Fold this protein.
Amino acid sequence: MRIVLTGVAGFLGSHLAERLLQEGHQVLGLDNFLTGSRANVAALQAYPGFTFVQHDVEDPWPDLGPVDAVLHFASPASPNPRSPFGYPNLPIRTMRTNAWGTYHGLEMARAHAARFMLASTSEIYGDPEVHPQREDYWGHVNPVGERAVYDEAKRFAEAMTMAYHRRHGLDVRIVRIFNTYGPRMRMDDGRVIPNFIVQALRREPLTIYGQGEQTRSFCYVDDLIEGIVRLLFLEAAPFPVNLGNPQEYTILALARLVNELTGNPAGLRFEPAMYRQGDPKRRQPDITRARHLLGWEPTVALPEGLQRTIADFRQRLARGD
Ligand code: NAD
Ligand code: UDP
């Protein structure tokens, strides 16, 4: 297949591109390096089936010739207002990338009768009142809160994707991704696992926002990519599918685990929860739909996935990346 993939310089985009190239597909990767890295693109250039197009997906897309699938993964993804790469510091761009970017991607898919996949998020559930979250839960989102630029833009993108399916019969996929981590994550994007690993390797205390009682469920990147590829090549699936690891951890337990795995003696530092307005208290995917539809479930437990991620961060820090 000839596949257009936006966000190819980013964490998930680069892993997904690599997997598709290894399977013999052609990948036309789009990115403007807003939060991604040139090193990720350089590594993909080793595959003859890879073409890179530097482009801001907010703007009308260039003609890329006939395509079989369009996968829209471009978007800032970190909620941390302390990082220049967090979406609270890129509010309008985040909304445009998810609104205009989705629109342009859907139009390209329609022009070529291609399949369209949207990288959506567990954030569309907001600070959930239902636990764990199933796809038929409509969510609890503050439309004017700090996180709304991301949550509401992704909700809009889902609605537009379904509108193209209903109005034009477009073959669409919506993947609701829950917290995913692994090698190649940007070390300074402010998400919790990169923050903790970098702090631990520098022998600094890990910064916990609030008391660390909030929970998240962390999926290792290889597991997520396997689920995405299965969903992409399914006959039809015009509805959202949760992908994530249902094993739930408090942030405090995660911090202790990172310190244990890295032998960091510096402990923890508790910081005011006010840094994170609207921080969801609990998050855990119900993956019943993915289990039935895709025969998929995660296989990498958090300690194992963290070890692999720590090894990658250690190497990149030693190189001075
Ligand atoms: P990332 O920041 O590593 O990658 C995003 C990529 O998109 C970057 O390379 C960035 O430069 C590119 N980009 C952003 N705006 C762009 C624009 N206007 N034009 C072209 N390129 C642009 O983040 P990620 O973790 O790889 O996330 C990828 C996708 O998955 C995002 O849509 C995100 O919302 C979604 N997602 C990720 C997670 C997760 O845990 N990693 C969870 C839920 C959803
Ligand atoms: N968090 C933390 N310390 C950090 C970074 C994040 O305690 O240095 C917390 C944050 O408040 C949230 C959780 O970790 O409750 C996950 O945050 P992340 O930014 O990774 O993503 P989210 O799941 O909130 O989108």
